[in-house]
Write a structure and sequence with these properties.
Layout: H1 12-21, E1 37-40, H2 42-46, H3 56-68, E2 73-78, H4 91-98, E3 105-109, H5 113-122, E4 126-132, H6 135-142, H7 146-163, E5 168-174, H8 187-200, E6 204-209, H9 216-230, E7 238-243, H10 250-260, E8 264-267, H11 287-296, H12 305-318, H13 328-331
Parallel strand pairs: 1-8, 2-3, 3-4, 4-5, 5-6, 6-7
Length: 346
């Protein structure tokens, strides 16, 4: 099915065009207008759940296309032992190439102290440290209890500081809204772990609905409470929302997190991805869907919709046979969001 062509840039430029087309827009974007950022996680979270290994040159095409589409933070891989995730064995090479892209924040996932050492050596700007709020998932994913992971986060902080590196430490807290292994995860446990990782030296923490169990009310309430816990440690400590569309509530949960004050979101082009150690965890929210949602609310992201859709077409080709997810690629943008055609001179 051929993709529709729209000349639209999410956020500021779209609103300028849209304002010429409709009188329903009551405000225009200025320097104080709402903004949000999207971290593309397809090269890590997307590919880790797919058995095939994409050749490094293809990954580099993906990386450059994502950057060209306006994404300014990309998770390029993970320093996990290659025997466990051969799909991500070329992470160091991707980091090296990504560091040459202007204005790009390059992040990687690290599961332990050894991975952190490799991240620091690579020169990555940020490392994402996974911590599961579910005891059962933590044992399955990292073979450690959550509090053991918290202690290792403290060791990683000391290693980072001793090395003189400026690599930012962010904790991605998974299964915060429920777990396919354990079932219910108590909000009080999530909040306890938020406080614990900040005490251990994490500079940012995000909450993830790893298995797509969350509902919008749950998301809003937990993020509001987590903001209160994180506030004494400084502004910007609670820094990201990560959602899956497994049960069709991904975008609703993004919106609920936005309402609670979240301004940074993980997403994956084509809506692929999932955790190998969380049965049923499929489908990150699609980058192109999140871009559409935010722009429809007048939130600037700097993302180019045409470029995102072109990248999606490429991803579908590179991963032929793998299911892709999302909605806006199929339906296209509504007519109310298209720029008016140029008028001919009379």
């Amino acid at each position: 099915m051929p993709l529709p062509k729209y000349r639209w840039r999410a956020g500021v430029e779209w609103l300028k065009l849209h304002a010429m087309e409709t009188t329903s827009m009551t405000t225009t974007l200025g320097t104080d207008s709402p903004r949000a950022s999207v971290r593309e996680v397809g090269l890590r979270d997307g590919l880790q759940s797919i058995a095939r290994t994409l050749p490094t040159p293809i990954k580099l095409q993906w990386l450059r296309a994502a950057h060209a589409a306006g994404l300014r933070e990309i998770e390029v891989g993970s320093f996990v032992p290659p025997r466990l995730l051969p799909q991500l064995a070329d992470t160091a090479e991707l980091v090296r190439e990504a560091l040459a892209l202007p204005g790009l924040t390059v992040s990687v996932l690290v599961p332990n102290l050894k991975g952190a050492e490799r991240a620091i050596e690579s020169g990555a700007h940020a490392m994402l440290l996974p911590l599961s709020a579910s005891h059962a998932h933590s044992l399955a994913n990292l073979r450690k209890a959550p509090d053991d992971v918290v202690r290792e986060i403290g060791e990683i902080r000391r290693l980072r500081d001793a090395s003189g590196s400026r690599c930012l430490l962010e904790v991605g807290m998974s299964t915060t809204f429920g777990c396919t292994i354990q079932g219910r995860v108590e909000p009080g446990e999530v909040l306890r772990l938020v406080r614990a990782v900040l005490e251990a030296g994490a500079e940012r923490v995000g909450l993830a609905d790893t298995v797509g169990y969350a509902d919008p009310r749950q998301v809003r309430e937990l993020f509001e409470r987590a903001f209160e816990v994180a506030r004494p440690y400084g502004e910007g400590r609670l820094a990201c929302g990560h959602f899956h569309d497994t049960r069709g509530l991904g975008l609703a949960n993004v919106y609920a997190a936005w309402e609670a004050g979240v301004r940074r979101f993980d997403a994956c082009n084509g809506g692929i991805g999932g955790c190998p150690h969380a049965p049923g965890a499929s489908g990150n929210v699609a980058t192109e869907d999140v871009a559409y949602l935010l722009a429809s609310m007048g939130v600037g992201t700097g993302l180019d919709f045409d470029a995102l859709m072109t990248l999606r077409t490429s991803v579908a080709g590179w991963l032929e046979g793998e299911p892709l997810h999302g909605h806006i690629w199929r339906a296209g943008l509504p007519k109310t969001m298209r720029p008016a055609p140029a008028r001919e001179a009379s």
